[in-house]
Amino acid sequence: MKDLSVNLSGLILDNPIVPASGTFGFGREFAEYYDINILGSFSFKGTTKEARFGNPTPRIAECGASGMINAVGLQNPGIDTVINRELPELKKIFHKPVIANISGFSIEEYAYCCERIDKEEQVGIIEVNVSCPNVRHGGMSFGTSPEAAAEVTRAVKAVTTKPVYIKLSPNVTDIVAIAKACEEAGADGICLINTMLGMRIDIARRRPVIANVMGGFSGPSIFPVAVRMVHQVSKACNVPVMGCGGVSSARDVIEMMMAGATAVQVGAMNLKNPYICKEIIEELPIVMEELKIDRLSDIIGIV
Amino acid sequence: MQKQGIYKIITNVPLTKSVYKMVLEGDTSNITAPGQFINIELAGKFLRRPISICDWNETTITVIYKVVGEGTRQMAGMKEGEELDILVGLGNGFNTNIDKMKHPLLVGGGVGVPPMYGLAKKLLAEGKRPTMIMGFNTAEEVFYYEEFVALGLDVFVTTVDGTGGTKGFVTDAMEQNGILYDYLYCCGPEPMLKALHRGVMTGGQLSFEERMGCGFGACMGCSCKTLTGYKRICKDGPVMYKEEITFE
Ligand SMILES: Cc1cc2nc3c(=O)[nH]c(=O)nc-3n(C[C@H](O)[C@H](O)[C@H](O)COP(=O)(O)OP(=O)(O)OC[C@H]3O[C@@H](n4cnc5c(N)ncnc54)[C@H](O)[C@@H]3O)c2cc1C
Ligand SMILES: Cc1cc2nc3c(=O)[nH]c(=O)nc-3n(C[C@H](O)[C@H](O)[C@H](O)COP(=O)(O)O)c2cc1C
Ligand code: FES
To answer: Is A63 a known active-site residue?
Structure first.
């Protein structure tokens, strides 16, 4: 019997597989395909204080075999509706602690939403997405400076009781400095990476494919970047890391864990193959057997 | 209820220079209405390609697609016997249970014509008397005229350049032929949808397109604004009621 369980700041997951925020909605659509209770957990759609429509369409661009670009722009029904409508629905189909992904455009907004979501019984971990623009500071993303990321972390930690993971953007020069600033500010863990800034052009029409011009690139081709950043951050920090970016197989999961991830998130691949997380969970014990791994938690950060 | 499956190509033939008909064999049990679509995985492509269901029976699905880019070109090159990984039963489809509707008008533009075929069959089976208008740019592009006629309904063709049928747009054919109808169903390019949305006084349903990430409601890639709130074209659509549509 293989042991797939992992421990994220005291929360024991049956396995390390966690669908990434924005690619799994609030679970309903995937529950039509399979019983989502087989998952370790999942991270729900990035939630903000107010309801948002997000960016104009087209919001999606194809990037060949390698991945896709999205510029959804955090479309979500707002924290009130998430608490009053989505979470009661989620409870019916998912019976494990869930990861609450929170976004904001000011420090106050992050703190407000995290304080509210912290009180929700089903929330196991709060995942704070700091890739959003800080509207009061010229729209620079909170996640691009150690000071701003630490400020968000401190503000959220001051009003919450549950583990807080800061989800970092890879679009920075020194990921380690930002991760360490978050750890020092009290973060219980780090999640990385979010999407990489990308762009596609429709060469026949001579204009960007995406209405927003640029968007977040994700999918299998960002995997090496994610592995590198997970490795760097997990070596430099003492808190657990959730690895994310380009994961598409059980072997990728093992690689990400060897790089230092305690849990592994799967994003864009859910959109291409709605069964990907189920397939990975089923494939993991087979690959573990092949690689002579009995307990998955034994390989965390061994490289 | 959406499902994933492996489907075998049993026919893949050109209907015009750039439009192909593909018949796929496999599980069709979760298709519930005409106007639904399927999402096709292609080798070397990350995103699946959404294509409307033209017709279906217990064991096969017929789709009609136009070659517009790499993915559809790849599809056109596929052979009988090859297999495709497809998500089936996506979207809401057309609602035919409309109070007092007797003479629905079906309007299809270009590759918006195919979903009208399954819809026409359903309406006829339900005892309605539909009329079909198909709009194309030029006579060479016309496909499925005989198939619609064979169903036993009145079919009008329009071409923008006048090389076939009525010259002009579908709205011209509606006026010139004095077509009477009490409900509208439409699928076609956005300018056509806009013109009909503005010009038609009866109730109706219009089918929309958008670039899709997943096609099954998970990613918010395909959202649009309606008078009844934000909707996902792939899950809450692609068919929208005329009353809720806004083109702001
Ligand atoms: C619900 C729905 C039903 C459709 N039904 C049909 C049909 O029955 N017959 C038919 O010929 N076409 C249909 N289309 C359009 C069809 O999906 C596109 O023509 C096709 O995806 C183009 O792929 P490509 O790789 O050849 O083109 P590319 O331009 O190379 O594709 C690049 C990306 O853009 C997307 N894309 C390009 N054009 C469109 C478009 N018009 N709508 C949505 N996504 C697009 C592709 O899916 C792909 O992700 C439908 C679209 C939708 C949303
Ligand atoms: C369509 C889409 C929407 C996303 N929305 C969010 C979001 O709301 N919040 C967030 O923190 N990350 C969001 N992400 C980023 C993913 O959670 C993930 O970090 C990223 O896509 C990298 O993983 P992947 O390569 O496996 O997709 C989104 C990604 C995609 C593709
Ligand atoms: S394409 Fe993903 S929600 Fe519609």
So the answer is: no
The pLDDT of residue A139: 67
A29 contacts in B (CB within 8 Å)?
2, 214, 216-218, 235
| Residue B82 DSSP label | -
Return the best residue to mutate from A23, A72, A212 for the ligand 2 pocket (most ligand atoms within 8 A of CB).
Answer: A23
Taking only the tens place, the pLDDT of each residue in A211-228 is 999 999 999 999 999 999
Structural domain boundaries, residue B110:
104-207
Residue B25 lies in a domain: yes
Please indicate, yes or no, whether residues B183 and B113 belong to a single structural domain of this protein: yes
Structural domains of chain B, count = 2
Least confident of A18-22, A286-290, B173-177: B173-177
pTM for the complete prediction?
Answer: 0.96
Q: Is the CB of A170 under 6 A from ligand 2?
A: no
- Residue at A198: amino acid letter: G
Domains contained in chain A, number: 1
Identify the pLDDT of residue A293. 97
Per-position DSSP letters for B89-157, written without gaps between them: EES-------TT--SEEEEEEGGGSHHHHHHHHHHHHTT---EEEEEESSGGG--SHHHHHHTTSEEEE
Residues 6+ apart with CB under 8 A from B115: B34, B35, B52, B53, B54, B94, B108, B187, B207
Beta-carbon contacts of residue B167 (< 8 Å; ≥ 6 apart): B158, B159, B160, B161
State whether B33 and B82 are in the same domain.
yes
The percentage of chain B sitting over the pLDDT mark of 70, rounded to a whole number, equals: 100
Say if residue A135's pLDDT is above 90: no
Do B14 and B85 sit in the same domain of this protein?
yes
| Claim to verify: residue B34 and residue B111 sit in the same structural domain | no
Q: Which of A132, A182, A237, A277 is catalytic?
A: A132
d(Cα A26, Cα B240) in Å, to the nearest integer?
23
DSSP string, A20-88: PTTSSTTSHHHHTTS-GGGSS--BPPPB-SS-B--SPSP-EEEBTBT-EEE-----B--HHHIIIIIHH
Question: Closest partner residue to B218 among A24, A54, A219, by Cβ?
Answer: A24
Q: Provide the CATH number for the domain around residue B134.
A: 3.40.50.80
Tell me what ipTM this predicted complex has.
0.94
CATH number at residue B83: 2.40.30.10
B10 found inside a domain? yes
Structure confidence by residue, pLDDT tens digits, B73-95: 999 999 999 999 999 999 999 99
Domain with residue A167: its CATH number is 3.20.20.70
The mean pLDDT value for A39-63 works out to 96
Cβ atoms of A179 and A153 closer than 8 Å: no
Residue range of the domain that includes A151: 6-54+74-197+220-299
Whether residue A213 is contained in a domain is answered as no
Is the residue at B112 inside a domain? yes
Average pLDDT across chain B, whole number: 95
A153 and A186 Cβ atoms separated by less than 8 Å = yes
Query: Is A275 a member of any domain?
Result: yes
Residue B182 resides in a domain: yes
